[in-house]
Amino acid sequence: MTNLFENINEQNIRKIKRFLRATTTTYPKGVNILSNVNQDDFIAIVDLGSIQFESTDYNGNKSIIETINQGGTFGSLTFPINNEEVSCITKEITQITYIEYDSITNDEISKTDSYIIFIKNLIKILSDQVNEKNNRIEILTKKTTRDKLLEYFKQQVSERGSKTFTIPISFTELANHLSVDRSAMTRELSYLKDDGIIKTNGRKITLLY
Amino acid sequence: MTNLFENINEQNIRKIKRFLRATTTTYPKGVNILSNVNQDDFIAIVDLGSIQFESTDYNGNKSIIETINQGGTFGSLTFPINNEEVSCITKEITQITYIEYDSITNDEISKTDSYIIFIKNLIKILSDQVNEKNNRIEILTKKTTRDKLLEYFKQQVSERGSKTFTIPISFTELANHLSVDRSAMTRELSYLKDDGIIKTNGRKITLLY
DNA sequence: TGTAAAATGTTGCAAATGCAACATTTGTTA
DNA sequence: TAACAAATGTTGCATTTGCAACATTTTACA
Fold first, then answer.
1. If pLDDT is split at 50, 70 and 90, which confidence band does A58 have?
2. What are the structural domains, with CATH classification, of chain A?
């Protein structure tokens, strides 16, 4: 994952942050950080801790949209922040830096050293986000739980370069990622084992084809 | 939709394109443009015509991933171009301009007038793409066809600002967008009408709640 | 404008899946 | 480390859905 200030030295980071009118806030665990965000477009960086975007259905169903860990980025440009159904909860003590979107392209900053690197990092981060969403969509468009699992496994194999890998999340979270019922997913996993398509040991999975 | 060269005059567009080592190709209808794309990262702009990304399953099922019309943008940074399962077919005579990703942040171009505007347009395009994908994911994570339809309708209402709207695609394409069986979707639409939740007239739909 | 292609509407049926309701194991933290 | 919370595994059952196979209407274009 690319960090917004990757390959920029501390001095230039400070300079860029000043031009970008960056502000840093620290939140305790379990609060909704979206409740007091202002209306201007912004990009936010999770300096420390982690957060979780959640949405609540009209019939009260909660679903986890996305988890963002330390170093991760989110923003009003890429997410409907002002949606009553969406909340963003800190999972632990979390420090977040906000930068104003409009200041990204002001004249002052464009003359700053490392500005091009900063822009390139930002473009990389946004591109990576599109790619991640494409992967998720590729999974979600599969019709059956089996095909969703196999697509997820295929992506893991392609990322790790090995047919044996340990899934980086719990099965409960995986079911959420695939948007299927957890117990139905467990059932399908045993069918896959019965059919000799996968082998499992806890969260370690081996594709056998 | 933002155009990559929005708010930049013709002269500066030519200058930027030169620095970006832009090349333009025209394709006849019905060809796969991904078959002869080179390996470097690029961003492509559809100057004229339209294209359609398609993927083919291991069991031969075709699905339409995305349609890009005139003015639209795509690129290797945000899409797995070198995937044997994915093809990109021209739907009509289509002209495409390719720009090299690495040249976006070279030193020459950063001194060009309108460079900041170009960068801002690019960031806007990428952000919009993330937003679109978020919307699609929001739909696809719904468990039932009914909830997928209602989420799609909600997005349309929110975009158009009216509870009556005409869907911009065919019902066949809509079923694809929701990743549900077309006939099952038609069935669910009549249930929604029976239940007094929507009213339809061809592709014109009115939400009644 | 005639004809082929695409879109739309309908229905029976088998298969997949969500849901509920558990038991059991693992992990967390006061 | 005891107690509680979270994760995992299992199964019956009702519901939803994909799929196939049509008929009919609309659209595209030669």
1. low
2. 10-137 (2.60.120.10), 142-207 (1.10.10.10)
